[in-house]
Write a structure and sequence with these properties.
Keywords: Aminotransferase, Pyridoxal phosphate, Transferase. One of its GO terms (biological process) is glycine biosynthetic process, by transamination of glyoxylate. Substrate binds at residue 367. Residues 90-351 form the Aminotransferase class V domain. This protein has helices at residues 3-10, 39-45, 56-71, 86-95, 112-122, 140-149, 173-182, 233-239, 251-254, 270-286, 288-309, 339-350, 376-393, 401-415, and strands spanning 28-30, 78-83, 103-108, 126-131, 155-161, 188-192, 211-215, 226-231, 316-317, 329-333, 352-354, 365-369. It folds into 2 domains: 20-37 and 287-414, Aspartate Aminotransferase, domain 1 (Alpha-Beta Complex); 50-283, Type I PLP-dependent aspartate aminotransferase-like (Major domain) (Aspartate Aminotransferase, domain 2), CATH 3.40.640. The chain is 39% helix and 14% strand. The protein is an alpha/beta fold. Strand 5, helix 7 and strand 6 form a beta-alpha-beta unit. Helix 2 (39-45) packs antiparallel against helix 10 (270-286), helix 11 (288-309) runs antiparallel to helix 14 (401-415) and helix 13 packs antiparallel against helix 14 (401-415). A 7-stranded mixed β-sheet has the order 2-8-7-6-5-3-4, with helices on both faces. Strands 9-10-12 form a 3-stranded antiparallel β-sheet. A two-stranded parallel ribbon has the order 1-11.
């Protein structure tokens, strides 16, 4: 017997089971952030630590800062990078524009705008929440009505998310801006694009957004650890008198001419900057509008699947108005189906992690993330696994959602054919 034979014979052997786990391959994460990180981005992070004061790192950093405005579609917004998650960018936006005792209007459409408001309240800001209709987006008319009532202009800022990853609502940012303008109100307009930037259309300048907030771990395809603020002219003006400014977040210090080290208030996030540079290159190679179109096509496939699965008292898309459903994440209500068991079957036996649900849907919903570095095989694999788990659980479904998703994707594949590059169609 050889040494290798001895080692093999000494290893414990797993007992065969009647229902073997099928998860032993590459585990797939289908939550709404962190999203799947491209291999190119992961490889870029494996870099030696450089000189942080001059040379290649500084050049890379400046190239990123020069390119970030185009991602938010702004020529006037000043970009800032924070070494944090998105909550750090929330705080950066608030501290640089507001003072203790100021009032903000939070436009609720799920969980995360409210969370931003909760952070503001801890900082000594007065917070008013305008609730959306259940399972609906923010109503611009309601925003206009409330701001018209604020004749003394006590409200200093309006806070909203473009996509709420808890509810999967997508808010109409241009319409909300119009509501603020129609009300003749001077409040700063701050938009959280953490779940939307690099996924769906966003136009900071055209839509009149004063502060845009984003994070690295979703549409930008970089691991968690970076967040961003784009500050428009009105926000930069407010920064001059903001009483909540702190040494770490201060936009004025971070934008000092010729002081690269201060852009990060200290040592730059070396590996994350390498990852971000690669991710921005990938977005540029695909084209930002093409990125949006890809997300829209994959989201249509997901929604087509969920619609076919739907049954009374069973599967249902959370957002009731189709035009308000996001192209980055879909929240799926499960009715009488045990959502926790469905997620456990997918993760523990099939190697697919689905997103948990937040209140008020906790325990009776799951979320499918379809953002970032994704293509049809990945989406169809996710949907096929969910469908298999539902069938295996004996859950009621209306039909094959996978077939519906494939049909949806087929329409986009057909539209994308380039003459002269594809095989002839099959004619039996």
């Amino acid at each position: 017997m050889t040494l290798a034979d001895t080692r093999l014979s000494a290893r414990p052997r797993a007992a065969a089971t009647a229902t073997p786990a099928l998860k032993h391959g590459r585990h797939f994460l289908s939550i709404p952030g962190p999203s799947v990180i491209p291999d190119r981005v992961l490889a870029a992070m494996a870099c030696a630590m450089p000189n942080i004061y001059e040379g290649e790192l500084v050049e890379r950093s400046e190239s990123i800062l020069a390119e970030l405005p185009s991602i938010a579609r702004t020529t006037t917004g000043v970009p800032f990078i924070t070494v944090s998650n998105g909550h750090g960018a929330w705080e950066m936006a608030l501290t640089n524009t507001l003072s203790r005792g100021d009032k903000v209007l939070v436009l609720e459409s799920g969980r995360f705008a409210v969370g931003w408001g909760e952070m503001a309240r801890v900082m000594g800001i007065e917070v008013e929440v305008l609730n959306a209709r259940p399972r609906r987006a923010v109503d611009p008319a309601a925003v206009e009505t409330r701001l018209r009532e604020d004749r003394q202009h006590e409200i200093k800022a309006v806070l909203v998310v473009q996509i709420d990853t808890a509810s999967s609502v997508c808010n109409d940012i241009a319409a909300i801006r119009a509501a603020i303008t129609n009300a003749g109100h001077p409040a700063l307009f701050m938009v959280d694009c953490i779940a939307s930037l690099g996924c769906v259309p966003f136009e900071m300048d055209a839509w009149g957004v004063d502060v845009t907030v984003a994070g690295s771990q979703k549409g930008l395809m970089v691991p968690p650890g970076l967040a961003f603020c784009w500050a428009g002219p009105r926000a930069m003006e407010a920064c001059q008198t903001a009483g909540l400014r702190t040494g770490y977040w201060d936009w004025r210090a971070r934008s000092a001419e010729g002081q690269h080290y201060l852009r990060y208030c200290g040592t730059p996030p070396v590996s994350h900057l390498a990852a971000l540079r690669e991710a921005l290159d990938m977005i540029a190679e695909e084209g930002l509008e093409n990125v949006w179109a890809r997300h829209a096509a994959l989201a249509r496939a997901v929604r087509a699947a969920v619609a076919v699965w739907s049954t009374p008292g069973g599967i249902e898309i959370n957002v009731t108005e189709p035009s308000e459903r996001s192209d980055a994440v879909t929240t799926v209500l499960t009715g009488s189906i045990d959502a926790a068991r469905l997620r456990a079957v997918c993760e523990q036996r099939a190697g697919l992690t689905l997103g948990i649900a937040f209140a008020p849907n906790e325990g009776r919903a799951f979320r499918i993330g379809h953002m970032g570095h994704l293509n049809p095989p990945m989406i169809l694999g996710t949907l096929g696994t969910i469908e298999a788990a539902l069938i295996g659980m004996g859950a009621p479904i209306g039909g094959s959602g996978v077939a519906a998703a494939a049909t949806s994707i087929a329409a986009d594949l057909g539209a994308a054919l380039v003459p002269g590059t594809d095989a002839p169609s099959f004619n039996p």
